[in-house]
Amino acid sequence: MYLVRMVYCSRISESFSSEDIDKILDVARKENKKRNVTGLLCFSRKYFLQCLEGGRKAVNETYHNILNDERHEEIVLLDYKEINTRDFSSWQMAYIPEKSLTDAINLKFSGTPDFDPFTMHGESAYRMMLQLSKDLTVI
Questions:
Q1: 3-state class of 106 per DSSP?
Q2: How far apart are alpha carbons 20 and 7 in whole angstroms?
């Protein structure tokens, strides 16, 4: 089985409600456990930034489900590559809330202190999530 890492971003849709983040995390963790997919989700009141790791077929199926989820708009694939090891193997879906997305960390990995994954290169987005997972307590 080939391991892959996928990083994507999206905007929340108008149909998104404040309760949806808990629903998304609950379903993602259950489904990812079944599929042996791991990863990390960063969320703000505007954007999702997510990294998924696992077998190629499982990650692709998960991404397909995200593409069809009406809570997401303007989904952009930032990075997709084969990997030798997972970096987020401890979590079916770790969660970094907006309060952890500080100006300093955003500025380090993008051109501005504002969290806007649409302005980030795929590798920068991945490296930001990797640092966040090491520096912060993820949920």
A1: helix
A2: 21
Place of tokens 């991945």: 126
Check: CB of residue 52 under 8 Å from CB of residue 63: yes
pLDDT digits (tens, 9 = 90+) for 63-98: 999 999 999 999 999 999 999 999 999 899 999 988
Edge-first strand listing for the sheet containing 47-55: 72-83, 3-12, 47-55, 38-43, 94-96
* Rounded Cα distance, 50 and 7, in Å: 6
First to last CA, the chain: 29
CA 87 – CA 99 distance, rounded (Å): 22
Long-range contacts of 28-33 (CB under 8 A, 24+ apart): 28/92, 28/93, 29/92, 29/93, 30/92, 31/62, 31/65, 32/62, 32/92, 32/93, 33/92
The model carries a pTM of: 0.92
